[in-house]
């Protein structure tokens, strides 16, 4: 009895004839001979357990290295025919072309996994971008509201392009000329509505290191600093023309630049506005004359101001202090004028000083 008590309960429910089999002794009891029955009557009748398998996948032989190399699950799935659902009735296929906003069939947004341009994310929400969506966007629409009473006649816009005077036969059928003194035609400022509230699209950071022509380490330090500040690998820029007086040769490496988009651009501006700008001594702000008349603004940092970034300050001893370069920051927005771009950055906390140009 003492030896029988040491056997597991499923094994004790089996007849002694089954326990005395050599196959049961060759394998563990939980692989072959262990059978759990609901009642003793079912255990006594082998016909009830005839459909149950006594073998286990744990006891199956392993595949050889040659069989593992020949095993291709994707090929088995491709060769399996007739098991998929018909795509015309049960599977959703987004349209390949957008037929307009009034078409009955519309493409799903990019956040939908079924969209053709699906991009996972976003996985984080910068504080400055969340503030823009919650507060700044509505404030800009309120500050830029222009009330036009019904019935007010619209003002005629002056001609932006100049006509030819017709003094020559070659003036016929020629396109109009641009304005005087400006090779680039600026954008026409559009009124801010709920459809075109200005926002930031990208930020470009560029650093110029002319000493890199003689000492390549200046270029390495500049690239490492921009990599730490932006989190993206900068590209090396080269000079476009030669200047003999300054010792600049066309095509030589003279700087680095990188462009960040989306959440990374908002995070960079958040660090500039709330960490770097307040720590600059006697800083007045950004000049109000900056801009390209198309809603893009620019400002710069000196080498001493670049060292105020937290990514540089925490590892300041890693960079040679005399090799830390300055950088220029170009902020690209969806605004149609510099006035709207300044309004956008002012609501985010950037001060401007000096003469304001519209």
Automatic annotation (TrEMBL):
What are the Basic and acidic residues biased-composition ranges? 65-82, 156-172
Q: Name one GO cellular component term.
A: ribonucleoprotein complex
Q: Which GO BP terms, alphabetically?
A: translation
Which keywords annotate this record?
A: Ribonucleoprotein, Ribosomal protein
Q: Which Gene3D superfamilies match?
A: 3.30.1440.10
Q: Is the keyword Amino-acid biosynthesis in the record?
A: no
Q: Identify the SUPFAM superfamilies for this entry.
A: RL5-like
Q: Where is this region: Disordered?
A: 52-124, 147-184
Ranges for domain Large ribosomal subunit protein uL5 N-terminal come to: 196-248
In its UniProt record, a GO molecular function of this protein is:
structural constituent of ribosome
Entries under InterPro entries matching the protein: Ribosomal_uL5, Ribosomal_uL5_C, Ribosomal_uL5_dom_sf, Ribosomal_uL5_N
**Name the record gives this protein:** Mitochondrial ribosomal protein l7-like protein
